[in-house]
Design a protein that fits this description.
This protein is mainly α. The chain contains 6 helices and no strands. Helix 1 runs antiparallel to helix 5, helix 2 runs antiparallel to helix 3 and helix 5 crosses helix 6.
């Protein structure tokens, strides 16, 4: 059995210092926060394009409302129109941008912040949004008498 070291090994220095790293995180964080909803939106488009299977329709709709939660407020499954959907997608992008700015601010409260801190904060905030979307879908399904599924 080896004795415990009396000192911790030195950590690698932060390039250009912690303030510069925090500043870079605050500048790039909001843009990085738009990537997961954009990926979900792209997956929704792929699933819904030339859709003939029920599972693709349900999964495509779910990924679409997870990527753009304002679609539910716009009445996405019951109302149509390209203009209405475009406004809902832009409103959702503003929501995700604000959420990622908030995650960036929360992650950089510490003197030495990292991308891991950002994604942890972002995951908690996005999880709350996604839980609300799923709750709204379940509530609409119960109120409308299983018209959505």
């Amino acid at each position: 059995m080896q004795p415990a070291p009396e000192y911790a090994p030195p950590l690698a220095p932060v390039p250009q210092g912690p303030r510069a790293y925090r500043r870079r995180l605050r500048q790039a964080g909001p843009v990085a926060g738009l990537l997961p909803p954009a990926a979900l939106g792209g997956l929704a488009l792929l699933l819904l394009h030339d859709n003939t299977a029920t599972w693709r329709g349900v999964l495509g709709f779910l990924t679409a409302v997870l990527a753009a939660p304002a679609l539910l407020a716009a009445g996405a499954p019951l109302k149509g129109g390209t203009g209405l959907y475009a406004v809902a997608v832009v409103a959702s992008a503003v929501v995700w941008l604000g959420l990622s700015v908030l995650a960036t601010r929360r992650a950089t409260r510490l003197p030495v912040a990292s991308w891991r801190d950002f994604w942890r904060e972002y995951a908690w905030l996005a999880g709350g949004v996604w839980l609300g979307v799923v709750g709204a879908l379940v509530g609409a399904n119960l109120i409308l008498g299983r018209a959505l599924l």
